[in-house]
Amino acid sequence: MHMARLWDSSRRTEGGYxxxxxxxxxxxxxxxxxNYEQLIGKVSMKQIFGKKKVKKxxxxxxxxxxxxxxxxxKEKRLQWICYSALDAIxxxxxYESLKSYLCEMQWKYNGxxxxxxxxxxxxxxxxxxxxxxxxxxxxxxxxxxxxxxDRAYLAExxxxxxxxREIAVNKFCxxxxxxxxxxxxMNVGSDTQLRLLLYGGIENRKDGRQLEEAxxxxxxxxxxxxxxxxxxxxxxxxxxxxxxxxxxxAEIYTASGWPSVxxxxxxxxxxxxxxxxxxxxxxxxxxxxxxxxxxxxxxxxDTFAYENDTSKIFRTQEEASEAYQAITAxxxxxxxxxxISNFILPLQGSNISGKSGHIHCSLxxxxxxxxxxxxxxxxxxxxxxxKDRYKIRQAFIAAPGNSLIVADYGQLELRxxxxxxxxxxMLDAFKAGGxxxxxxxxxxxxxxxxxxxxxxxxxxxxPQPGEDKPPVPLLKDAFGSERRKAKMLNFSIAYGKTxxxxxxxxxxxxxxxxxxxxxxxxxxxxxxxxxxxRKEEAKKFGLVHTLLGRSRRFPLMKNASRxxxxxxxxxxxxxxxxxxxxxxxxxxxxxxSKNTRLKGLGWRLLLQVHDEVILEGPTESAEIAKxxxxxxxxxxxxxxxxxxxxxxxxxxxxxxxxAAK
Length: 661
Hints:
Blueprint: H1 2-7, H2 19-23, H3 26-29, H4 45-49, E1 51-54, E2 60-65, H5 69-75, H6 77-104, E3 108-109, E4 112-113, H7 124-145, E5 147-149, H8 151-176, H9 191-199, E6 214-220, E7 236-242, E8 252-254, H10 263-276, H11 284-290, E9 298-300, H12 304-307, H13 317-344, E10 358-359, E11 362-364, E12 373-375, E13 396-397, E14 402-409, H14 412-421, H15 424-432, H16 436-444, H17 446-453, H18 475-478, H19 480-494, H20 499-506, H21 510-522, H22 525-541, E15 543-545, E16 551-553, H23 562-593, H24 596-601, E17 604-609, E18 612-618, H25 622-634, E19 649-654
Antiparallel strand pairs: 1-2, 3-4, 5-10, 5-13, 6-7, 8-9, 11-12, 14-18, 14-19, 15-16, 17-18
């Protein structure tokens, strides 16, 4: 499957990478040594051995079930032998075919063909043997090692989380009951109930239907209320919810056309309400971090900020302040629910933990850019450190006598962009060191540059003994708004974000966003030229390459609509950056795994999360091992660094993951 991804990374939408899908595709299998007529694609176990589940009335249902493997091997012995043999044959034929395809693909390393001493060029099959095959073996070893989890700590955090959730729920329901009496009994986890309460009567943006203004819902009768006409309290009771009577603004809509009541949508709503009561604690940073409109199920109303006046949502500032606090409490409920369901509960589950208390997640190279993904559980999806209110990472611990080393690349993707585009401004900024985003803001805005030159502000400050504050304000404090925009641009432009998308994020006109983007590009024309070249490459050849020569194909480019073409162009800009970062991380891990001194000291890789690696080993050699890890990551290409910019690595030793951050 790894070979198939190297050959064609676009099959995620063109059939997939399962053994059944690959061996059943004649275009994939025609490179095999056997004639295609003799090839037999893999057939699923369900298709051969599956039986329809019998209903209670004796009739067959639609659900197909499989007996345990040990039963199938005994009861269907001949069929099982045939299935296993044909499975092995089709797998071998798939390998032969994919090998022939990869041998025909030239390998480009850092933009140059890889040639041997005899002058012959290496192929992507050579890349597979040198990098992806050993990387796959390394990942299997990491899965086997697993990470030790402190379940007692997670159980304690579960109690804390549920208690805090109840407080937040009561805060919202108490406010809502001022407008709708039965709201105190509602289920705040129900999108249907929330949407009716907040947006009842609103018109659907897709089909013009009107949302009900009132409706009766059945909820658990936790307070044992005896309803009229009943002798005793029933398990469930009816409540009547209706719209609160206030026209609340909606900026994010579901794919079906109704206002979204997701956590992101509620955070935007809280920010809009805060504008009426002049609250300052809902900063631009928190809003930027909160909102992720990348989901395909969400549609953002770009015109809202310019066509609607949100200054008078509620009649008084007091009402607005109470509403803001209530919606903020509801946001807190969403956040807590996410942490409980995605992390706290799954990490305690016995189905994903061995007897020793280790979590063994499945690591896969199954993204189009080559980034690792994880499942059962998804350890790649840890909450951001500043949002990790229950310190989930603290539950990942070292065994007694051991420590963890957590090493992380600093601004890896921006450094990759600087290298690929050969941008002098970015290369100089990284060489100078310090706060990269502050330097970007200084280069973008003349008034900031003037303030720095006149020493009215400092780019950064390193306190000396006895000093507790800088002599003049830091740039990031004095020009926070400009630095925020510079920071967002640094990351957004690497992903091909347009002025329209930035206008939505900043709540400004497209023209104003475009002016800011032009300021960024003014000193970085090399980036603009490089991005245009990647768009042309995708248009002409239908693919782009990463640093180590992996390709991402765009088969839909030729006949794409404007919207799809724009999406492909953004991917053509993003893939070389994100994919090359994945290449660097892979090389670093291979460098670490083959380091004989680290092995001798007893250190082993446990996990990779984006630009971060985690190792475990004896505490007594932690500092020595840390220095070796930093050296391996700083020079990941067989002991060298082929980039035009240094690779910054931050590493710490600790007894748990959280303490090492």
